[in-house]
């Protein structure tokens, strides 16, 4: 079963995103952000449309889209959970937090649960270093993660 | 006058439950039929007290914290709106030792005002610097910034005024001011706090930079991990445009200046200035070789001032109070104040702005209050993932660019991560290499390949395979990375690695336990 839209539809929706941002100076990153917001990922079909509109080669657009960690090749799960793994969070036991979350969700970093409920990702700093260890669930920030908070997060993504 | 309740909307406070506190407060107000205004201020920076709720009373502001949603009803019962006694009462926030000991110049308003209220900003001295700047000749503005001794707060410590002078002196049809808000270093959150808590000070600083150098367009490149900062900055830019602070006639003067907010895409290396410029242009965030300097050929090949958030946010106070006022703070060639960010395993974590010169020990033990876990401090990493690990023996090092360099360290963006005695320094050294491998832009070989090889050699060390040879190899590799990399990512990764090896040799010796664990 595929929930991904047909390629003609992708092209049309991508073109709409492009037309909104084409006049910006250096529009490629804003366009890729817009496309990802539109589809939840950056479809291969979009790259062609973008390359065409910006008079770039497909290779150039592919190069940019794959350089940055944020752009997804596939749609994420319904929730996206990012666990900070940088030094300040490590000093407060982010390793143990990650191990617990991975076990509870049954997936590792860069993986999506089979029921599509959640995608788990590491993140290198959320700027919440004075309330470590920290996480971000669908854009919502959570600090001083303890067992109780982890249980709440797991329950939330399973709902 | 109805009461005013301040509940921070800063991400750090939100991460600790400020949103729930705000909801509970609004509900209590409705149920009790009290007319009061809730202001979502920034954070003053004491994260051990967040969410810190403040109320405006006849005697001035009174703080309560850390407040949980469940405490709100009790606070109302205790009459906190008029400063009533409660177990969470902190009294006058200005007198809380953590704040009373600070010298707040750049962060003077952060946590006090409504971040997106220009009236509030002006009532607290905002725009005074810009008003003086619009009446001055560009060269005089640049001279004032140069004289203040302000150096790049992003980490490199390059004199801000000299950078501006180069842009001013370079003729071009278009120039840019780029604000580097890609604050990716662990332990740093000063940029985030100012963007969420006092965005107008950054807008004011950038506008002054524009007038001083002849640039008419500014970009703020904010990392995507900071969605709240992005939202606040966008809102503030909109407000500033409407009020004529930005636009074709800045504050009614003939100067034009506008700002656009851009969002990064999760690449740490884009905090490096030339890589950031490539990213803004819509390219891969690959580092550029220098020269040409960005001040001569920067964004889209035009002369560009690229400064860190804190450097730009420090400009308004320098313009308002004068170069001598700012220069008066600090020591040696490190002038003015620095927002030190105390993070990690620390009891009193947060942002502490003070003149340069405090010793590392004073910062960690006295201000930070030691570890949160209560165990002894083993190491502190100063300057983010590319900064050195300092042992307690070096805690007498004063916070100063040159003093840290003398001890093979760096201040960087002034973030300090505290580790207790459970930290394994071999693991931290390996992580430094791993991080470099993940984030390398791939342009130069020492960084791209060296980081992966470094990880492998440290793994061999951990496994006790030819330890002496491995140690010599990793030292040699660090030397190659330090002198052969194009930018600070590959060039500075040796700092955490070598400092861990130098100061904590016991963690790199093969132990029976470590061998057994493999």
Short description:
Chain A: InterPro entries: NADP_DH_HndA-like, NuoE-like, NuoE_N, Thioredoxin-like_sf. The complex is a heterodimer of chains A (159) and B (518). With 159 residues, chain A is of the alpha+beta class.
Summarize the structure in words.
Chain A: Pfam families: 2Fe-2S_thioredx (PF01257). Chain A: Keywords: 2Fe-2S, Iron, Iron-sulfur, Metal-binding. Chain A: It comes from Mesorhizobium retamae. Chain A: This is Formate dehydrogenase subunit gamma. The complex is a heterodimer of chains A (159) and B (518). Chain A is an alpha+beta fold and 159 residues long. Chain A is 48% helix and 13% strand. Chain A has 7 helices and 5 strands; from the N terminus they run ααααβααββββα. Chain A starts with 6 loop residues before the first helix and ends with a helix. Chain B has 4 domains: 3-100, Glutaredoxin (3-Layer(aba) Sandwich); 121-326, Rossmann fold; 329-420, Roll (Ubiquitin-like (UB roll)); 425-517, NADH-ubiquinone oxidoreductase 51kDa subunit, iron-sulphur binding domain (de novo design (two linked rop proteins)), CATH 1.20.1440. Chain B has 23 helices and 16 strands. A 5-stranded mixed sheet of chain B has the order 2-1-3-4-5, covered by helices on one side. Chain B has a 5-stranded mixed sheet with strand order 13-12-16-14-15. In chain B, strands 8-7-6-9 form a 4-stranded parallel sheet, sandwiched between helices. In chain B, β10 (330-331) and β11 form a beta hairpin. The longest helix of chain B has 18 residues, at 445-462. Classes of the chains: A alpha+beta (159), B alpha/beta (518). At the A-B interface, α2, α4, α5 and β5 of A face α1, β8, β12, β16 and α18 of B.
- The assigned CATH architecture of the largest domain in chain A is 3-Layer(aba) Sandwich
Q: How many distinct beta strands of chain A?
A: 5
Radius of gyration of chain B using CA atoms only: 24 Å
Give me the number of helical elements of chain B.
Answer: 23
Straight-line distance between termini of chain B: 68 Å
Count of discrete domains of chain B: 4
Name of the CATH class of the largest domain in chain A: Alpha Beta
Which strand order spans the largest sheet of chain A, edge to edge or round the barrel?
2-3-1-4-5
Oligomer: heterodimer
What percent of residues of chain B are in strands? 5-15%
Q: Structural class of the secondary elements of chain A?
A: alpha+beta
User: What is the number of helical segments of chain A per DSSP (H or I, 4+ residues)?
Assistant: 7
